[in-house]
């Protein structure tokens, strides 16, 4: 079975192939250089860039995978959540292709797909808990099986990755802030500057709030200037890590599961990965984190999610060009 996965929800154009349970091709055209000058993603520029690149990326993916369009059995494309214009490019491309090849198309949830990046590992057992930590979301899911997801908690304001990006901007480190902060933090002392960890009240026990952390960085810089950036980054990263693992510990006490899955761009962060390894050590719950390239937005994770929709007998989507920008 060959599945083509298409991702254009935000600022990466991704085309991935899943062939007989393996991922032979996962091409990503990032737009970092387009948006970096603006300190954030400009939706109109993002959708234009997807449009300019998707065709070539598709051709290259088929070449690399050694297949022809007629060899594709199913197409998966994300249609939510994301930027409307960007989603529209991927969905239009996918539906037109599915129509021309007369094959089924699945419109899939972008967040589920971040976690599905782990599903190709045969060790994953269900039920599982999943946490998506990305630029747009920080969301806990209870995953009954690969196609049944239930939201258990989410951020009430900024997403975790968004806070990394905003803090990076305050510190003049460039966009996206996450990788810059991780690099600088490696040279710093996490105990020197203490930033707040928002645990929220009982009603929001499994929700997150990250906007206070970014504001604390702003106030620190206003008071002390841009001195000791590595220590600021290390303290910031520790506070983000403390919040994520504390909430995850609570979630795992409440819901008994066999596996814990991470996904989304922030999962690339080695410090955060290590904090989760330590948290789950000896707990009897298996931890899964995608390889670095599968953490960011990519087409292979969409193909993986699609594979399970097919396997579990979920009906294909309509070929109508429609997207759901928010969730
Ligand atoms: O999952 P993703 O590619 O896109 C969304 O769906 O949002 O995540 C992008 C986010 C950005 O906020 C970026 O700063 C963050 O992932 N990120 C990181 C790292 N690499 C990317 N955050 C912390 N440390 C990193 N190494
Ligand atoms: Zn994403």
Would you kindly provide a written description of the structure presented here, covering whatever features stand out?
This protein is an alpha/beta fold and 327 residues long. The protein has 2 domains: 2-115 and 295-311, 2-Layer Sandwich (Nucleotidyltransferase, domain 5); 126-289, 2-Layer Sandwich (Nucleotidyltransferase, domain 5), CATH 3.30.420.40. It is 43% helix and 20% strand. It contains 11 helices and 10 strands. The chain has helices at residues 32-35, 43-65, 84-101, 110-116, 160-170, 177-185, 211-224, 229-254, 270-280, 292-295, 299-311; strands spanning 2-7, 12-19, 22-30, 74-80, 105-109, 128-133, 138-145, 148-154, 259-263, 286-288. A hairpin with a 4-residue loop joins strand 6 and strand 7. Helix 4 (110-116) crosses helix 11 (299-311). The chain is globular and about 60 Å long. The two termini are 31 Å apart. 49% of the residues are buried. Bound molecules: 5'-O-[(R)-(carboxyoxy)(hydroxy)phosphoryl]adenosine and zinc ion. Zinc ion binds at residues 110, 114, 134, 264, 297.
Using only CA atoms, what is the Rg?
20 Å
Query: Given the helix and strand composition, which structural class is it?
Result: alpha/beta
CATH class division of the largest domain: Alpha Beta
Q: Which architecture name of the largest domain does CATH use? A: 2-Layer Sandwich
What is the strand content?
15-25%
Distance between the termini: 31 Å
**Shape estimate:** globular
Sheet with the most strands, sense and barrel status: 5 strands, mixed
């Amino acid at each position: 079975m060959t599945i083509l996965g298409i991702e254009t929800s935000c600022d990466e154009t991704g085309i991935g192939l899943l062939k007989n349970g393996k991922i032979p091709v996962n091409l990503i055209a990032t737009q970092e250089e387009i948006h970096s000058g603006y300190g954030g993603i400009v939706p109109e520029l993002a959708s234009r860039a997807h449009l300019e690149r998707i065709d070539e990326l598709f051709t290259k993916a088929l070449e690399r995978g050694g297949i022809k369009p007629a060899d594709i059995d199913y197409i998966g494309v994300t249609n939510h959540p994301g930027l409307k214009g960007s989603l529209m490019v991927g969905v239009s491309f996918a539906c037109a292709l599915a129509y021309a090849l007369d094959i089924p198309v699945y419109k899939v949830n972008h967040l589920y797909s971040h976690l599905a990046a782990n599903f190709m590992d045969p060790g994953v057992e269900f039920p599982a808990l999943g946490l998506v930590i990305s630029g747009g979301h920080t969301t806990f899911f209870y995953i009954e099986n690969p196609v049944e997801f239930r939201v258990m908690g989410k951020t009430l304001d900024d997403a975790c990755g968004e806070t990394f990006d905003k803090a990076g901007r305050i510190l003049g480190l460039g966009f996206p802030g996450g990788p810059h902060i991780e690099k600088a933090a490696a040279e710093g002392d996490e105990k020197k500057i203490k930033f707040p960890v928002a645990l929220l009240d009982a009603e929001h026990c499994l929700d997150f709030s990250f906007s206070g952390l970014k504001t604390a960085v702003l106030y620190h810089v206003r008071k002390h200037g841009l001195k000791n950036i590595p220590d600021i980054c290390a303290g910031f990263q520790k506070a983000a890590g403390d919040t994520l693992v504390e909430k995850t510990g609570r979630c795992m006490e409440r819901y008994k599961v066999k596996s814990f899955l991470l996904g989304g761009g922030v999962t690339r962060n080695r410090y955060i990965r290590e904090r989760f390894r330590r948290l789950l050590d000896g707990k009897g719950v298996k931890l899964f984190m995608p390889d670095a390239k599968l953490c960011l937005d990519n087409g292979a994770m969409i193909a993986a999610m699609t594979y399970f929709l097919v396997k579990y007998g979920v009906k294909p989507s309509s070929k109508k060009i429609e997207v759901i920008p928010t969730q």
